[in-house]
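Task card 7
Instruction: Convert sequence to structure tokens.
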Amino acid sequence: MSKPAILGGKPVFSKDKSIPILRPMLPDLKTLMPRLKKAFLSGQITNASNVRQFEKLAAEYLGVKYCVAVSSCTSGLILAQKCLGLKGEVIVPSFTFHATTHSLLWNNLTPVFVDCREDTFNIDEEKIEKLISKRMSAILAVYLYGNPPVIERLENIADKYNLKLIFDAAHAFGSEYKGLKAGGFGNAEVFSLSPTKLLITGEGGLVATNDKLLSDKLKIARNYGDSGDYDCAFNGLNARMPEFNAILGIEGLKIVDKKIKRRNEIAGLYADFFKDYKGISFQKIEKGNLSTFKDYSIIIDPEIAGISRDAIAIALEKENIITKKYFYPPVHMQKAYRTYAGIGLNVTEKLSSRVLSLPVYCSLTDKTIEKICLAFARVFSHKDKITKEYLNG
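Output:
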């Protein structure tokens, strides 16, 4: 067996066959063409019949009353907060993608960061109440990597303090909490449909809710706040979904369960491999829940593992395996957010400094995963030399 590439040997994967962090799985083009052609020839290429059908089918899949298609998850979050009339402060985790909190700033809301749990990586529901103030209007929780938070507890807190509850469910189309699909919890749940997600429309988002008034208002909000009479009721956005994106979503719904199943199989293979590595831990999925595993991330404790996250990432890159650090740095440490409250975020900072996301996508074969694990094993077997080389630059 050749030595790992970081030591000058032959890499596990050649440059032309490198392993990306993701590779979107799309519907067969032949299934899309009839709808695409019809929409193209009709001249109605935005917010028309295919969008309405996509919303109907998505609502049926999620088991909710209403879905409103929008241009992105971010615009969906912005508009949901706008339509719910949020003011003042909103509790939000810092261990998330920054778009979660960007939506708050666009509404002139103040993020109040709360720590995450070390086992599930999700918002720590036990640390929320001590942060609630008279200016608080909502909780914005996240399904990190598709893993459901403790929704029942979050709903109880929101009810107790008369707060709105919104879920950034960007990663979670198809996730389940205690056997119920994400989408119908809280006041609204907002999904991303970008190329990194399981249900893909190219770009796009969905706001799911059981609140008809909110649904109706969102449909106006995505059209500048104009209900169709050219007399704007409020300042909305142009957040409409094009017909072509909706068509991709309609066909994508047919394969989303297949994607979830395969990603969970891959997660199981990784977990089986890493279970015997000291200093390596991974996200806990509570019994009865289902994650989409939009990302598969491990946590590396450098003191126990004997090698840092960053050194491993560089070594794997030399093996032509691309990894990411989702999410580093945490939001409260990013330039745009350093003036906002971030007290006692010790778990967030620890996880963020140790997290490493590995390739996970449906076309990964078991054999390829074995080779990724082989590369990881080789890195660990030479961790002292790799660490020395990393520290020497």
